[in-house]
Structure prediction request, 364 residues.
Amino acid sequence: MSNWKAIAAFVGVAIFYEVLVLLLWLGLKWMLTPFISAKVKLVLGILFFIFANFSIIAYMLRLGAPWVNYGNTWFFYFLNGVVIAIILLVAKLVLKLFNFNLSQGISLGITGIFLVGMSALGLYWAYSPIVKSETIKVDKKIEKPIKIAMVSDLHLGTFFGNDQLEKLNKIIEEEKPDAIVIAGDIMDDDMVMYKKRNMGETLSKLSAPLGVYATMGNHDRDAQEIVDEVKKAGIIPLFDESVELNKDVTLVGRKDRSVSRDRLDTADLLKSVNLNKTIVLVDHQPDAIDYHSTLPINVQLSGHTHHGQMWPINYITERIYTLDYGYKEINSRHFFTSAGYGFWGPPFKTTARSEVWIITIEGK
Prediction:
């Protein structure tokens, strides 16, 4: 019965999606009608539906990277197409009250400007990382403040690779952190492009005096091949494990909830840790912040949410997570959720720029 429910849900979503695609095409067709012939519209319509379903077809045919990734670009324009369609529909209804007709030419112009503008913003924010700094104090002894560089969600693959890793290396060189933490989703589901473009060589340039550490995310899972590649790059993966950064600070890395079949509860994980030290917990998905705010940790580093990545999805993630983005102190614990250094799917970010967190922890 559960299989039938899953199939029915999939079919329902697929039909709903195709209906939306059809409505978008009808709107675009209406705007283009005064300017192109029927034959050209037919060709454009066929291309429109191929583009709209390309990544789905590529996934079903198991074409893999980079073809699925190229097709994923569509979903940025699909989302923004829905947004501008709603805006134009509302504007058309409102203007009609004032006896003003929103013509096809004006509608097409507004749509073009909106999509070009969002594309430019999305590409710039995706490929122009910023540094966000925060100094926090914990109620434990730390002989010397420790500086941690935290990034998450690199999603190394077709659209994100060596050039962005070089930018990250440059930021690390300038900021000179004591340790580097990658809070999950290093790879973009597989390592096809990672290996093809020899990204491991660039990734291995990351270094810090106290080491480079990582937890795996839902897109890394616990694939041994990915873990092996991470180790080759000189990065220490943490699977429900802890490591002492120095005599005052302990780093604890959780397995991701996507491999929760044998993941320890955080409280159980902390039983093997010296709680007199400052505890920095790395948990890819920030879904347990409320729970963790009651545990004897001091700092949590997370990613996963991308702050929605594409507007207006951020309004959804803001309601799902206690902290979907940024820094917040809760119950004297310090929580950080990064919007990610990279991105998933379309190579655009319109809710937050790619970022590196530089977190300085001071003691009493």
